[in-house]
Amino acid sequence: MSRYRGPRLKIIKRLGALPGLTNKEPRREKSSPRRKRKKNQYLIRLEEKQKLRFHYGLTERQLLKYVRIAGKAKGSTGQVLLQLLEMRLDNILFRLRMASTIPAARQLVNHRHILVNGRIVDIPSYRCKPRDIITAKDEEKSKTLIQNSLNSSPDKEVPNHLTLEPVQYKGLVNQIIDRKRVGLKINELLVVEYYSRQT
Cellular location of this protein (predicted)? Predict the structure, then answer.
């Protein structure tokens, strides 16, 4: 199953706000008396898994791989899973406001506009570590793309585990993110339960 390339607003209407997927807002529909279905346990777990998958732009196989890695690590599987996903390079760029969405961040990385510790990294899933320095390539085009993104979201706050120096187009990873700072309303334990039969 490949990465989702369909209409993003449809996903947001179904699953709720996903800031990493798109920054557009769905239009308000006229209130019609629609009957709400009662959700069973499987559907609740499936929706939580889909939220995680669409927010971070992962394929089913990638998400399953992250769940397996988190299951082998020490600590709460759900918390480790979120930390692994939050420390991806494309997500770090999104959180630093260097890209407006995670797909835009992925494109920046794929097109070789980003340096990590002075070396070009073109793998969006690259796992950042504390004290990594993320900068724009020393080209006008790279800096313009990042500046446009910084200008489009000036009021958006950078999380505590990251530091942004917008004048130098530079970001620093201070530490691994804390669960409370994850900008997505999700119950990660339901995702782990969903995958418990497959791992």
Answer: Plastid, Chloroplast
Tell me which residue range forms the domain holding 72: 8-26+38-85+183-195
Q: How far apart are CA 62 and CA 54, in angstroms?
A: 12
* Residue 2 forms part of a structural domain: no
Instruction: CATH number of the domain at 13, please.
Output: 1.10.1050.10
For the residues of 87-98, what is the DSSP string, one character each? TBHHHHHHHTTS
Residue with tokens 């959180």: 95
Distances (CA, A) of 8 to 83, 110, 181: 25, 21, 24
**Residues 161, 189 share a domain:** no
Share of the chain above pLDDT 90, in %: 15
Give per-residue pLDDT as tens, 2-60.
666 666 666 777 676 666 666 666 666 555 555 667 778 888 888 888 888 888 888 88
End-to-end CA distance of the chain: 18
Structure tokens at 4: 């989702």
User: Rounded to an integer, what distance in angstroms lies between the CA atom of residue 12 and that of residue 19?
Assistant: 9
pTM, two decimal places: 0.81
Q: Give the H or E element holding residue 136.
A: strand 133-136
